Amino acid sequence: MDTFNWFDPEDESPSVIRPELQDKQGDQLPSNLLIVFAKDVLDGLRRELKLTRSEENFYFFGGACALYLDQSKNIALIEGAIGAPIGVSAVHTAISKGVRRVFVVGLCGAVDNSLEVGELVVPLECVREEGTSFHYIASDRLAVPDIEMRQHLEAHLAKSARAYRVGKTVSTDAPYRQTTQTELNWRRNGVIGVDMEMSAVFALCENQSARSVGLFIVSDAHDLTEIVDWEWNRDLFRVALKDAVQLMLDFAEGY
Predict the structure, then answer these.
(1) Which DSSP symbol is given to 14?
(2) To the nearest 5 percent, what fractions of the chain are helix, strand and coil?
(3) Which of 10, 118, 145, 255 is deepest in the core (most CB within 10 A)?
(4) Which of 238, 234, 25, 203 is nearest to 104 (CA)?
(5) Do residues 215 and 121 touch, judged by C-beta distance below 8 A?
(6) Where are the beta strands (DSSP E) in 29-177?
(7) Sorting pLDDT into bands at 50, 70 and 90, what band is 251?
(8) By the 8 A CB rule, do 91 and 35 touch?
(9) What average pLDDT score do residues 69-94 get?
(10) In the chain, what are the domains?
(11) What's the predicted TM-score (pTM) here?
(12) Are 89 and 61 contacting, i.e. CB atoms less than 8 angstroms apart?
């Protein structure tokens, strides 16, 4: 079997591990899901965002997380684990329980040296350097958000007077293989940011006929001179992440 031909569009046999059986205690979910690919964020924002925490956790293959609801906006919120396989497991389980639109807030490292920590990035296309997406769409397809949702998100950001960038990003499974040469190659090919989940979420949603859109906060900037060690500006990132979650939650209200 060719390495990148794992997806068979003619295979309609049932999953051995079925997503709809993973969250046995929970009810059906609202049609909108906001997933934040960061830890320990939503509980701190619960009062400010007027969220209700479910008495039951949300279970999926490989893990569980707290489930938050905003009844007025018909939306569920969860935090995804780091990495495409577990993140997609959570989203796929949510889709099996009624979610039809997925709003992703994630973090990305700045590949483009003009990006700064805290800036917002709307991914236009995600280069697929993770393995999960190749089980959901053919290897020659692009991992992209829903075009209409992305355009509406850009309009929402512009209306809110928030500066943002739109561009190509890359999702990887191997952060320790983000070598200086790798990132320089990404930069030469027009990539502006790197994360670990977005391309796989977009591929999953296409496969499941769900709509999706993403928003990144730049969490760290990479020095490619090999002079300065990599450092994550956690405090600045946290402030920007809080604002991004609020922005995306307000945006999702229109759906």
Answers:
(1) P
(2) 35, 25, 40
(3) 145
(4) 203
(5) yes
(6) 32-36, 52-53, 58-60, 63-65, 68-70, 75-79, 101-110, 120-129, 164-172
(7) very high
(8) yes
(9) 92
(10) 30-252 (3.40.50.1580)
(11) 0.94
(12) yes
* Contact status, residue 203 vs residue 143, Cβ threshold 8 Å: yes
Residue among 139, 116, 115, 112 at smallest CA distance from 199? 139
pLDDT in tens, 143-184: 999 999 999 999 999 999 989 999 999 999 999 999 989 999
Residue 243 CB contacts under 8 Å (≥ 6 apart), including other chains: 162
Angle at 184 between CA 182 and CA 185, to 5 degrees: 65
For the record, the structure tokens of 249 come out as 């939650």
Residues 213-230 pLDDT 10s: 999 999 888 777 766 666
74: DSSP letter: T
- Treating both helix axes as pointing N-terminal to C-terminal, what angle do 147-159 and 234-252 enclose, rounded to 10 degrees? 110
Assign 107 to helix, strand or coil. strand
Q: Are 39 and 33 in contact (CB under 8 A)?
A: no
Beta bridge partners of 227: none
CB burial readout 234-255, b (16+ within 10 A) else e: eebbbebbbebbebbbebbeeb
Say what the pLDDT of residue 2 is: 64
Only one residue has tokens 């479910």, namely 54
End-to-end CA distance of the chain: 41
